[in-house]
Amino acid sequence: MAILVDERTRVLVQGITGREGRFHTERMLRYGTRIVAGVTPGKGGENVHGVPVYDTVEEALKNHPEINASIIFVPARFATDAIFEAVDAGIKLVVVITEGIPLHEELKVVSYARSRGTVIVGPNCPGLIAPRLRVKIGIMPEHYFAPGNVGIVSRSGTLTYEIAAELTRHGLGQSTVIGIGGDPITGLDFVEVVKMFEKDPETHAIVVIGEIGGDAEERLASYVENHGVSKPIVAFIAGRTAPPGKRMGHAGAIISMGRGDAASKIRALQRAGIEVAKLPHEVPKLVERALRR
Amino acid sequence: MKLYEYEGKDLFEKYGVPVPRRVLIESVEDVDRAIEIVGLPAVVKAQVLVGGRGRAGGIKVAKSVDEAKHVVEEIRSRGVRGVRPRKFLLEEFVDIERELYLSITVDRSARKYIVLASSEGGIEIEEIARERPETIVKVFIDPLEGLQPHHVRYVERGLVSRGIDGSTARMVAELVPKLFRLMMDLDAELVEINPLAKTRDGRVLALDSKIIIDDNALYRHPDLAKVLEEDPRDFTPLEIVARRYGFSFVELDGDVAVIANGAGLTMATMDMVAEFGGKPACFLDIGGGANRDRVREALKIVLTLPRVKTVIVNIFGGITRCDEVARGVVEALQSVSSTKPIVVRMVGTNEEEGRRILESVGIQVFSDDLEAVKKAVELARGGG
Predict the structure, then answer these.
(1) Structural domain of residue A30, as residue ranges?
(2) Where is the domain boundary, B220, B252, B283?
(3) How many structural domains does chain B have?
(4) B232 falls in which pLDDT band (50, 70, 90)?
(5) pLDDT one-digit tens code per residue, B283-341
(6) Which of A16, A171, B114, B313 could form a disulfide with A21 if both were Cys (CB 3.0 to 4.6 A apart)?
(7) Is B371 near chain A, with CB under 8 Å?
(8) pLDDT confidence of B383, banded at 50, 70, 90?
(9) What is the distance between the alpha carbons of residues B203 and B84, in angstroms, rounded to a whole number?
């Protein structure tokens, strides 16, 4: 098994006719993802790499009732509407690649989705990949990933590929790799994903890639301390040298009001018994060691 | 985007939050006119966006027109924590009985708005939270529910139970809907009044303002975006140039410039620089799928920083193609005359072609980023 996706996952691509949408639709199809429809308002009737395009999500679902996931490549100004449309149509997994959605909109749409039982991955994320199932709902370069038993949850993109590639090189494949997004508000947090990995029999070890800003890492640490997680967790936190008050690329990567620095996150994780790699390259070694125990 | 105190107070006034009488001045010649309006003594406040402005000597009380002029001159020439103020606010002196605190922001992990009110004010909220957490009233607002009257009542009751008299607590709580409306209308991440003064004549007044606008929502506020263009505030001139190209760029005080693709990887590369005893000169994320033009512009930006001694370019290619990166590096070197060494680490799509291009112009290419970073740090130290 994997988390969030399985053999029955059938995907809708919202914003399929844009440059990004087209490009990644092709790559996802080539990898093996079952993409059954796309949506771009006003472009209904076209097709992209053989995938039929509809004007609305509702119409796509009427024609393809098997759709149970959506990936959104819609530009920031229109992305919130696209998410609402997917949630209202009853899709239970929505991956939002879009970067730059305004904070207040993000708050509202993420709360709405959660209240309706829809899982949002992102916004501002690389999506997720389950190598054994060959399901990729995202933009990651798939050849760095291999089937295996390490679950990865991350707030970043490229750094996740880098660490996954390193794990793959060391013979440590992945069960599911999921980027929860670099914005201040995300649909999923570390605790929720770690709980999913804990229940997933395919996952034997968990890698958490955090960064400065917010308190998702601290909350994971306190969850682990209070409830315990049976599978080993290895973490890496980016931004030990980041100055306070400056946004480091991701909207959510900012040390503000004296909170969210790397040192306090690392301390909290270590206190909870989680091994924290000093550099990304140490992750495979720590995972290997943890699995041997 | 951070707003200056005077911009925030103009907004407060517009939304019905009481503020002291004040005049914004740009030159010392305006002091006479300003004092006629605000009276004496007057408070001279440098308009800078640095924390602890008061402690850094950016706020002074003047008892005469001459003293006010002297203070303006003095702060202007001295600067406040390295920032030279262009504008000053001259403000009526308020007879304060007590300083309180009020703000609305977003609680990221709760995914809710949060109102923070405290019976203590005048010091930073971090300090209040650390020293006197029991004085802080927290009221969460669900974004789907919006602000409701009971939230306001909770703020009022919270303050009363922390020893604030009923009439003051009510006046403070009644500011909450005004701040909330302001926050929504302006797409603010933070709206803060600190200190919120209770005066001896029984009023509450916002003595300072701190407003941060969500950068992702600036497209909805063209007036603010224009103001930011004219006055880049806490951005350096080079950071503004980088913004135009859509780069995430932050200047730092070291000498090894860091360019990478992806925010997490760029931060991790900075951390590696520090691990090898170096100091990063900047953070520059060229973003996903960058072509040669972006790489060229990114390099040109960091090479103009005088303190940069070496550059580390760390590319993990997926969608980003290494040959494009290599061509961008070569083009940058052709268009600027720089002898600063550039160390490139790249792996992924079209890696061999990229390596060939760079090695033909004598640039060292690594596939291991630790080795590359180590080399860049050594070169910055004058070794290698």
Answers:
(1) 11-121
(2) B220
(3) 3
(4) confident
(5) 999 988 788 999 999 999 999 999 999 999 999 987 788 999 999 999 999 988 888 99
(6) A16
(7) no
(8) low
(9) 33
pLDDT of B267 > 90? The answer is yes
Residue B121's domain comprises 96-220
pTM over 0.90? The answer is: yes
Residues B162 and B269 in one domain: no
Q: Which residues contact A291 (CB under 8 A, 6 or more apart)?
A: A204, A205, A232
For chain A, positions 100-119, list CB contacts with chain B under 8 A. Answer: 100-104, 107-108, 110-112, 114-115
- Write the burial class of residue B140 (CB in 10 Å: 0-12 exposed, 13-18 middle, 19+ buried): middle
CATH number at residue A15: 3.40.50.720
- Average confidence score pLDDT of chain B: 94
Contacts of B265 in chain A (CB under 8 A): 156, 158-159, 162, 238
Same structural domain, A191 and A265: yes
- Domain holding B185: CATH number? 3.30.470.20
B189 CA to centre of own chain: 12
**What length is written for chain B?**
384
- The candidate with the shortest Cα–Cα distance to A125, out of A150, A81, A104, A95, is A95
What share of chain B in percent tops pLDDT 90?
85
Residue of B nearest to A158 (CA): B262
Regarding whether B191 and B106 lie in a shared domain, the answer is: yes
| A35-39 and A51-54 strand pairing | parallel
- The A residues from 31 to 50 touching B (CB cutoff 8 Å) are none
pLDDT-derived band at B109 (thresholds 50, 70, 90) equals very high
Say yes or no: A253 contacts chain B, CB-CB below 8 A: yes
pLDDT (tens digit, 9 = 90+) per residue, A107-166? 999 999 999 999 999 999 999 999 999 999 999 999 999 999 999 999 999 999 999 999
- A188 half-sphere exposure, CB direction, 13 A CA radius: 30
Rounded CA-CA distance A182/A126 in Å is: 10
Task: For residue B316, give the nearest of A114, A161, A184 by CB distance.
Answer: A161
Q: How many domains does chain A have?
A: 2
Q: How many residues does chain A have?
A: 293
B192 is catalytic: yes
Task: Tell me the percentage of chain B whose pLDDT exceeds 70.
Answer: 99
Q: Is B101 a catalytic residue?
A: yes
- Other CB atoms within a 10 A radius of the CB of residue B239 amount to 18
Where helices occur in B291-349 by DSSP H, the ranges are 292-303, 322-335
Within this chain, do residues A115 and A145 fall inside the same structural domain, yes or no?
no
Residue A268 belongs to a domain: yes
Q: Looking at residue B45, what is its pLDDT?
A: 98
Task: Answer whether A104 sits within 8 Å of B184, measured CB to CB.
Answer: yes
Of the residues A121, A150, A180, which one is the last residue of a structural domain? A121
